[in-house]
Structures are given as structure tokens and as C-alpha cells.
Amino acid sequence: MSIGVDAPATIVFSLFYFIFCIGFVYQSKEFVGLGLSPENILSIKDWVGSEEMDFVNFQIRRSCGTFILHSLLPFGYLIGYSYVTTQLDGNYSSMTLFWRAWPQMLNGLVVSVLIPAALLSLVWYWYTTGWKDHPLVKKMRIYSEDWKSLSKDLNTEFRRIDKISLSLNPLERLVVTDNWILLLGPWPWSLHISHQSDSSLKLLNYDNHNISTEGELGGTQFLHIEVQSRKPGISSFRFRLNSLEYQNLQDKLTESIQNIKSITIYKTVSERFLDVFKEQVAQNDKVSVADELESCIGCMVETANVKLNRICESSSAGEGVEDRCVNCYCRPMWCIDCLGKWWASRQDQSKPETWLGARCPCPTCRSMFCMLDVSLITPG
Q: What CATH number is given for 135-252 in this structure?
């Protein structure tokens, strides 16, 4: 008899267990809300302690406990599968007969027991040796052999309210204190630490998304940043940061983040729209102006380089008189950046997808114009 084909209960069990494993390992919001997270389970007996009071020991114990809990998932599946196929589907009279019929399942069960047993032995060894061989502690000992004294300083810095603690994703968190940069992952080997005085941060690349899982208007930009340490023995590490948190991170760092590729960092929907606005205006017809151009009255830095020149033909159907594009006779007074920001500020902030097709009043005379009416100025 083939497993799963004639056993619908095992199929249902396998499906739900797979979903449980995905949610438990990757920590979806629903699982965390239900308390089904390694951190909540480990806190039942207060084994991990308090992060605020003892930050370093909390991370050491949390990472070890999470690693062990994850290693128990294969064992839970094999035991559950054996129970379901014998008790619910009735394919075998006992679990012993099932394992005899399927020795590969029994072998898998043995391996699934040995893996957490080996990890428990490793964690017990770390515990009996005072955690000195834990991956995080080994990295701390590169900075100071008296790592417990260093951990006290780090605990003190973490308790300060001006630290930065950013959730990068459900599994990783970035913590920046006055002197340290830490990347906290779920397992012992995913914990990274680097002293700010030894660190250089580089902006590697980025990725833009039109839809944000957090409900941010206009989508989301993520920045890929690498932390390189000049301290021998401290490996570099990378993280992915929401661009809205970029300035907060930069303000906490003692050195600037290197942006060698001159990547444009979007902070707001308006700033993301500005690039699209400039690209669209560049496709419009250009105009020549004989008068001498003055500085933009919006920023007083750039020279005025755009003029409103009505090109589109507004239809009166379904539009009020005040909504139609009209001729604007103002002399050039604005640069394209300031005009784009003005345009964005006059639109419905809850519907950024409609901004390009909307209209806007001239910032000087309030004459209505659309995107087609904005023309770049060429030297006359």
C-alpha cells in the first residue's frame, strides 16, 4: 500500500504540518499573535530571561533554544504521520507494524532523534563551559577576552532609550547602540556583532516594489547594506533595510554609509513620484525662452528650467470650467524638482496611482495645467 494515496488523513496531516512548520520557522504574524513562536515557548519557564535586563544572555539562550525547537520538527512529523496512518486511517494495527513495513520511515525517525540530541549535547557543552564557545561569545572575545565585562557594557547600552532596534524581517533584527552594530537572527550562527569604530557600511544595491506589505503608499524600496569590519576575525554581514528607516540608521552611526553607486534613496511617496514626474516631462516638447532665467523661487538654488505651455486639449465633457487646462502666462520661476514637489502636494495623498493623470494649479497664478503642459526650457 502506497503512503498518502489511500490515506486521506495522512495527506491532510502532512499539509497542515507543512503549513505549521512554515509559519513556525518563518514567524508569520498570525503565529506570533497566537504565541506560537520559539521566543514565547522558551519564555514559559523564563529560561531565556529578560532582553532588557540581560541582552547578551537573552540572545545566547534564545538562539540555542530556537535551534533546538526547529530541529524537533522532523521528529514531530514522523511521529504524527505514524500515528495518523495507524489510528485514523487504520492502515496498520500498530505503529510498530508500520515501521516494520516502512523501514525508511524508522530510519528517518532515528535520524530525527539524533539531530536534536546532538544539538542538545552541543548546547549543554556551551552551557557548562560558560558559553565561551558560543558563536556570538567567540566574536565578542575577539574584542575582549573578558567577554562578560564587555557584555555588561553592551547590556547597559541596550537599555538606553536612544538605541535603534529595527525589524528587518520576521527572522532578523538590527540593533545599533552607541558603539555596536548587531544583526540578530534565529540561530547561534546568525548572530553578528561589529564595533562602530571598526565598521564601514556600504550601500550595495536596492529593489523597489509597487505593493507594500505594510500598507505604505506608493510601494516600498529596500536597501541592501553590507557591514565590513576592519577587525581581524570579524566577518562581514549584510542586511536588507526599508528605505524609510535609512535616515534613522544613519543618524545613529558614527560614520556615513558609503553610497558608491549613487543610489537614489526614496523616503516618501512624493520623492518616489518625483523621478516619474521628471521622466514624463522629459518626453514633452521643449520650449525656448529669450528672457534671462532667474533662480527658482522655491529652492533658490537651481535655475528655473520649466515653463507651463499649454499643449493638451481639455474636453469640456464631464469637466467643470475650473478643472480644465488653461493658458499660463507666468514667466519661468520654478525648477522641475520644486514643480514636481508642488504637483505631488496638491494631489490626493491616498491615491498616488492617479497623480500622473491629474491636474494641478500653477503655484504662481493658479491656472490649471496637466502633465503634458510642463515643458523643459532650452537655451534661447
A: 2.30.29
